[in-house]
Amino acid sequence: MPALVNYVDLGRLCSISSQVDVFYPPRKRARITAPFVVGETLFEQSKQASIDVLPDECLFEIFKRLPGGRERSSCACVSKHWLMLLISIRKGEYESSKAVKENTDSVSDEDDGYLTRCLEGKKATDMRLAAVAVGTTGHGGLGKLSIRGSSSSSGVTNFGLSAIARGCPSLKALSLWNVPRVGDEGLSEIAKECHLLEKLDLCQCPSVSNKGLIAIAENCPNLTSLSIESCPKIGNEGLQAIGKLCPKLQAVSVKDCLLVGDHGVSSLLSSTSSLLSKVKFQGLNITDFSLAVIGHYGKSVTNLMLSGLENVSEKGFWVMGNAQGLQKLVSLTITSFRGVTDVSLEAMGKGCANLKQMCLRRCCFISDDGLVAFAKSAGSLESLQLEECNRITQSGTIGVLSNCSLKSLTVVKCMGIKDISSEVPLSCCNSLKSLSVRNCPGFGTAGLAVVGRLCPQLQHVDLSGLCGITDAGLLPLLESCEAGLVKVNLSGCLNLTDEVVLALTRLHGGTLELLNLDGCRRITDASLMAIAESCVFLSDLDVSRSAVTDSGVAALSRAEQLNLQVLSFSGCSRVSNKSLPSLKKLGKTLLGLNLQHCNSISSRTFELLVETLWKCDILF
């Protein structure tokens, strides 16, 4: 007889007198296959857990006494009703939180804010935020929250943000992008509960106004970073409150907020001048007055970016430079300004003694004279970037190189640059290490020859998109680089041949780490063979849309010294399934392999590569 079986319970034992006991078997249970109907009413028997009978007030008191985050998370999984009750409880209302506060020697790991959560698209809903609010408790606490929403009806609302506020007082960084249903109410709840907030990023939040921003300013004194973009209801009052009540503010970015004007910007700058180091203003209705305030009060500003300020004139930039307040400015970016002229540019060079990085984009009134004058006055300048400044010519760039100690020069889409040979003796710019000339169709052989004579210490060269350069023009530059080239980008240089690559590997194979030949359609297997023989430290190679074949891939795989990490054959139609063994061998060190648009490689070969090269990201 098996153990632990109670056979007596199979029947019933009854006593009919004090001396006689009678045993009888149990009755058979009736099988009911249809619901019991009385009249026209349907009765369905369902057992309900006894705790659900309790009113919400009782459940609220029970949940308040849960010992920790694990128990709260378990209860939140029971039902949506329980989840809603749990998120209605503030962190400080739990009995366990009160006990921790009373015991000064105890430390709670739930308030440290170690966790980061990001909700995007359809996953950004109130229910998910509620689950985050409950689930992160007891696991380090939520420190950073990013919401990348959508305009759908099920998106995040004030309710979800309020749940985060009540459950995550340790929140230090909040980013809200494209959440049209979140307004001042939700942001005010964050301000009310999350006093440790340090970073706030608002982008495309049309329902958030000055009221919400003022609430943040009044309750979050530790705020160090503020970014506002495309929030049409935020104006001067909000920025004034931030400047007045957030003394620790270090970085501010305001973009495309039409209600922001001089009063908001000037109040912000004048109130936070002691710590504010990073400033970005774009697409605002501010005038020369704001730039004068920046120049006077920006004593701690190290990074300044100004873009699309249509009401700012030459006078504003001239005053900003001559105010002599931007002595700590290291990086300055100016985009799309009619007010930037030769006069104002020279004034900024004189007024920013420690300026090291300068970027000018779409400043159509700057000429060679202004650029050279700026280079002479900005004695600390190390990096200069010019984009779509069409009045700048080759003479201007050569003048800059001859008159300052630049380390990096970038010229992009400057249509005024034409190929002019220069016989005038020029002083060398031995400091220049990086040269990038991209998509300037007028830059050609003569320009390369001048650069070769001027800059013998180049290590990084980017000539992408220069369709006009040839082997004869590039070879002198390669021969003049004494320090050894490390990174070379020749993508889109359609007329270059194997001769350039052979010279490059012969002269700089011992230092070359990156080589981009994307779109160089005349490059063949001879280049890959030269690379395999001479390049010791090459880690990134791109020969997309070239004429290389399986033989070139095989040559690369036979190179013992090669340690390639990124390799691209995108659009190489002559690389086929025959390269599978070679690619497997190369894949031992690869982290990235691009085989997109390689029409001669089959899906089966791709699957075999994926199985073998499990450490490598393969694009197909």
TrEMBL record:
<dbReference type="InterPro" id="IPR006553">
    <property type="entry name" value="Leu-rich_rpt_Cys-con_subtyp"/>
</dbReference>
<dbReference type="InterPro" id="IPR036047">
    <property type="entry name" value="F-box-like_dom_sf"/>
</dbReference>
<feature type="domain" description="F-box">
    <location>
        <begin position="54"/>
        <end position="95"/>
    </location>
</feature>
<dbReference type="GO" id="GO:0019005">
    <property type="term" value="C:SCF ubiquitin ligase complex"/>
</dbReference>
<dbReference type="Pfam" id="PF25372">
    <property type="entry name" value="DUF7885"/>
</dbReference>
<protein>
    <recommendedName>
        <fullName>F-box domain-containing protein</fullName>
    </recommendedName>
</protein>
<dbReference type="InterPro" id="IPR032675">
    <property type="entry name" value="LRR_dom_sf"/>
</dbReference>
<dbReference type="InterPro" id="IPR057207">
    <property type="entry name" value="FBXL15_LRR"/>
</dbReference>
<dbReference type="InterPro" id="IPR001810">
    <property type="entry name" value="F-box_dom"/>
</dbReference>
<dbReference type="Pfam" id="PF12937">
    <property type="entry name" value="F-box-like"/>
</dbReference>
<dbReference type="GO" id="GO:0031146">
    <property type="term" value="P:SCF-dependent proteasomal ubiquitin-dependent protein catabolic process"/>
</dbReference>
